[in-house]
Amino acid sequence: MTVDSPSTPPFRDPHLPFAKRIDDLLARLTVDEKISFLHQYAPAVERLGIAAWRTGQEALHGVAWMGPATVFPQAVGLGATWNPDLVRRIGEAVSKEARAMRTRDDRVGLNVWSPTVNLLRHPLWGRNEEGYAEDPKLTSAIATAYTHGLRGNHPRYWRTAPVLKHWLAHNNETDRATSSASVRPRVLHEYDLRAFQDTVEAGAVAGVMPAYNLVNGRPNHVSPYLREQLRTWTDEELLVCSDAGAPSNLVDAEHYYDTHEEATAAALLAGVDSFTDHGTDSSLITARVEGAVQQGLLTEADLDAAVRRQLSVRFRLGEFDPHYDPHAATGEFDTPAHRALAREAAEQAIVLLKNDDGLLPLAADTRIAVVGLLADECKLDWYSGTLLHRSTPLEGVYERFGAQRVEFAEGVDRVRLRTAAGAFLSVPAADAPDRARGAEGALDPALLAGRTDLPPLTADATGTEFALADWGEGVLTLRAPDGRYLSVAEDGYLRASADQPGGWVVQETFRLEPHRGGHLLRHLGTGRHVRVAADGVKVADTGDVFEVVTVERGEDAVARAAAGADVVLVVAGNDPHINGRETEDRTTLLLPEHQQRLLRAARAANPRTVLVLVSAYPYAVDTARLPAALWTAHGGQAAGTALARVLAGDVSPAGRLPQTWYASDADLPDLLDYDVIGSRQTYLYFEGTPLFPFGHGLSYASFGYAGLAVRVEADSVLVSCTVTHTGERTADEVVQLYGRAVDPSVPRPRRELLDHRRITLTPGESAAVSFEVPLSALEFWDVRQDGWCLERGPYELLVGASSEDVRLRTTVHLDGAAPAPRAVPERGLSGAGFDEQSGIAIVDRTRTAGDAVTPAHGGTAELVYRACDFGTGVREVTARVAGEGTVELALDGGPVLASLTLDTPTDGPYAYTDLTAGLVADGVHDVRLRLRGPLRLAHVGFSG
After folding, report:
1. HSE-up (13 A, CA, CB side) for residue 668
2. Any residues with CB less than 8 A from the CB of 371 and at least 6 apart, and which?
3. How many CB atoms lie within 10 A of CB 856?
């Protein structure tokens, strides 16, 4: 037992509450020391014995960036498990590995920047792999489980401190630092905030990270919702960490403030507590904070609030109580249990999309052709650790079915590149060790340099045969026979040096550009062309013309392998670093043409072709002529073993799609359209026919549903049913409960996930499944009253195996509020509180709070406000506006009754003025407003 000295300062006394200890420590810190704590890399305070500390350790599906660690399936794959208990255990394993790794490398942090709870609203978002689901309920269930695993279950001390990313409404990489998401109040409250709120309220979240983008014209790093929403959900101190470089963006990219001192002060006052900017160099941020204090923009009390939140996390992590920290000796790394858990997760993430005539599972003596660009790959993404173990689909099938029964064809095009002089590009022989990118660990892997210890390519009479893969839109990789990819290092020379494509700026991708009867070879990382020089092949402003000599087409190799097999497995999908990743959105749902060619060739050679999609996002792929198809996210270190076990029937697949798979690009709204209600996005509102619906996933078993019972109580609805295994092998079923308002007064979801349960049943076994649904889950945000509303009326409850595979249903009547019209003489109309709109952008009413509306491109826009009650009558309308332009008002479908014009522009976008006109109206009407010109409308009032 440790006995504290009588001279021990209170902040060192483990018997005192954290709050009192933090008060004591704050009182001992100087203003300069407090300011130094505000950067991501907080220095030591040696006079008080306080160590240096940093926020941030990536751990999305395993400890990332710090070298070898257990790699679990991508986050979207964890979402596909629909299994919170599994994900909680994964969180525990990740946090224990973080603790273990920190004992030998103090660069490993315990403030983990995970999970990502952005909803997968749009499948073309480049970071689709990082989220869990398009549905807020499923997302929060998985995120809550992961954060509880990361936190640990000790009541006082946390194993790691998870930070949720990325606050708020962030689903585009295109112009991500300058684009603004227009998020109407209903979408804000019913959709984007819900996943964050439910997860925070569950009690295992240490903070959040704001996103790069703007919401309603205001940068997320100065979002009033941090104060108005986030900090009201818990009594815990929440640490808000900026995203990397975002504080500087407030001035440099977004031009939202004129000076960095003003911007830094605004972010801190809005709630940002730790500034991630300029890497390890804290001098610029601290200078800006010092300037803000000197200019009177910040007080010491403002600094204290931010430092307190950071210290709260550090105390919870046991930093100040090393002898009392229960997690100090609990680290586990690469244990047999972690390896088994990685395999279990990969198995549970596999979704059986289609299985006509029971083609799967495969018999043990099946002759199998394994083909495709992903067939012998175990791909990592930007937020992965380095693999300790590796299992590709090919290796898994070899292991499970026997190599003698397996034929393999990767399907790459085998090519040589001939110069105009007749020489061929050649990879010189080299004696250099293999080296996996990032194996040594890096606080910022974007700074990792390319290899220069290998000789550059040359040109000679025979050349090298390269494996060419086209990943879509003409983006190519070229691989040498030794497995190394062509890459360009900082010196500009082309080498066969990379184990995989990767890096913040990928240096392993190229494009062939037709030119003078041949092709220029453009290196996409530098934007320069490849040229043969006397000292080696390099990139330059002008490139050589190459002839592409095809030695073998990929589809020919695939057809040969397929023809002699009983079954063909075409393993297709994406490379997580190419065409869809952080900084780059996808442009299409289509499978790249190279892989479509391979699929067609396999199907033509052998109709018993199974498509195995390994990808970070959905595809629109024609499966009509395929007997079977599966999807899995990139499954981590055990992906191949897991796939083979599912194919063999050792495990019955029970993954479920966490987002809608659309049939066509035509089904998608614009990427920057965040109005899931108005543009009918996600399974909640989509009215078309999806390729595969949300929650879809087949099994090798069958299940019967019966005995639906419902009881309405004061604050909840109790739902139960019996699920019976009617098949022949032990399997999991995911029982899904949906609800919908039958006769709503406003557009409501077609159906909405209320709860789910993943259960395991043996043949013939039955299980009683019950759910308790709070009535609040059936509420909507009523813009007429500016609050939540449970509407009186019938609600249908649906139980089944997916959002469309409904097995049981019933209707209950709930005693909520009757629809009420807007009392416009008393409340008026908030500009953003519309029911319908066309051509509107929601913008910031002021820099600190409130919303306004404006025509999206300065032209014309329309707004509809339903059921406005003018009572006994009004005589006047007043519009609060800024800018210049006209507001026209009509009732129902009638003519314009009032026109208010601002001829002289106001002094800036936040300089509002009131325009008044006569208007005679009484009773209940729909109000229609038309805005013309670059006008901001904040509010419309009525009097008289």
Report:
1. 24
2. 408, 409, 410, 411, 557, 558, 561, 562, 568, 569, 570, 571, 598, 602
3. 16
**Max CA pair span of the chain:** 93
Three-state SS at 253? coil
Residues whose CB falls within 8 Å of the CB of residue 17, separated by 6 or more in sequence, listed in order: none
Scan for tokens 């079923």, then name that residue: 733
Claim: this prediction has a pTM higher than 0.85:
yes
Each residue of 415-469: pLDDT tens digit?
999 999 999 999 999 887 777 777 777 878 877 788 999 999 999 999 999 999 9
- Helix, strand, or coil here: 459? strand
What CA–CA distance (Å, rounded) separates 247 from 222?
A: 10
Nearest to 160 by CA among 345, 327, 341: 327
Q: Which helix H or strand E contains 418, and what residues bound it?
A: strand 413-419
CB atoms within 10 A of CB 445: 18
Distance, in Å, from the CA atom of 715 to the CA atom of 260, rounded to the nearest integer, reads 49
């006394």: which residue's tokens? 13
Structure tokens at 762: 């043996």
Q: Which residue has the tokens 């509102």?
A: 685
C-alpha–C-alpha distance, residues 338 and 68, integer Å: 13
Q: What is the dihedral of CA 254, 259, 260, 266, to 10 degrees?
A: -80
Please give the backbone phi and psi of residue 915, each rounded to the nearest 5 degrees, phi first: -110, 135
Digit-coded pLDDT (tens) for 897-933: 999 999 999 999 999 999 999 999 999 999 999 999 9
Q: Is the Cβ–Cβ distance between 424 and 417 less than 8 Å?
A: yes
Look-up: residue for tokens 């946390």? 158
Q: Which residues make beta-bridge pairs with 487?
A: 495
Q: What six digits make up the tokens of 433? A: 């060790």
**Residues 6+ away with beta carbon under 8 Å from 815:** 792
Cis peptide before 323 (omega within 30 of 0): no
Residues 6+ apart with CB under 8 A from 379: 500, 575, 576, 614, 634
Please give the positions annotated as active site. Answer: 243
